Amino acid sequence: MTMIKNITNVRGIKCWGAHTGVKSMRRDLAIIYSEVPAAAAAVFTQNKVRAEPVEISERNINTNHRAQVIVCNAGNANACTGEQGRLGAEAMMKVTAEMLNIPEEDVIIASTGLIGEPFPTEDVVNGIRNNIHKLSDEAKAGSFVANAILTTDTFAKEGFVGFEHDGIQINMGGIAKGSGMIHPNMATMLAFVVTDLNIENKLLDKTLRYCVDRSFNMITVDGDTSTNDMVAIMANGMADNTKIKSESDPGYIIFREKLLELLTHLAKLIVSDGEGASKFIEYKVTKARTEETARKLVRAISDSTLVKTAMFGRDPNWGRIVAACGNAGINFNYRKVNLFLGDQEKMVQVLEKGKPLDFDKNYIKKLLRESQIRVHLEVNNGKESGMGWGSDLTTDYVLFNSVYTT
Predict the structure, then answer these.
(1) Which of 20, 112, 121, 188 is catalytic?
(2) Which residues are 70's β-sheet partners?
């Protein structure tokens, strides 16, 4: 993963991050613009309570699977805001389209911040008017826009990958935000990706969904999904490669691999910034009957409150892990499984084909003191695997979220 470059290294992409006053001390408006209309795809929150920008952006994406700009405000989620919020979201879309002289349906809008607060329409709209002329392809603009979408995050989350197709360098960059309300099947997170690849719209949509299922949908911090979640991608084709139209195209597999690499990188950054978290935990399930089975087991383990608290307390209580597997909604025979616990360097087997092994609890407690922990489960009834990432559940998390608005 190359971290020196950012989204401004993608052909035809300009952006800006600005302070409009919605947040007192930080940038709170992000604009990402493609000089030409781009193939676009997006996935949205599965929460039944959906923010106003989610409704508008999904409608626009479904109109023609095309977009030319993403605009996002931070500091206010514009969720549960009624008619006032709906009009505010539409105003964001309309002023952006007007200032850029593009169709309204080519605008993707997003919001993040407090739920249920009246939407500061005037501040956001004036911010868009006052900053669109600053759009730039300079590296600093990419840094500004990555910082402008943050809420409780402690650092900006960026990534960039490059690969060759048709003898042409293809560029792809992305930014993300999120640190709390993170849960499989999307959470309080946003991610925006841009690439200069030329690819057919419907294939782009299919690929995004494939990669999100194996990246953002495999992370968890606290088990809560939010109202505003969105992952969006624009592919403007300015690399001028022969358009990728099918999964059999020689360039398709490498594109999918690189998109998954980028989204996984951003997903891991979100987990590593989990509110109050002291540990980054990698969960791996192997030798499962199907990939979906493996991913369900990963999600069951990583979302278990008892597993998270055990990791926080450095407690090698492997019974909680096995018990969580029994809640995964699949056929699970613990008598066949092997289980390993450890850090990035060493793993200790604690279970062999369902039988407890003698192990040095103090030694494992020492391994679990590390900031990066691994849990590996072998199901032993197939050849498929799945991987996910999560954090521990700490007293700091409880304290932070008990006074979030006050």
Answers:
(1) 188
(2) 32, 108
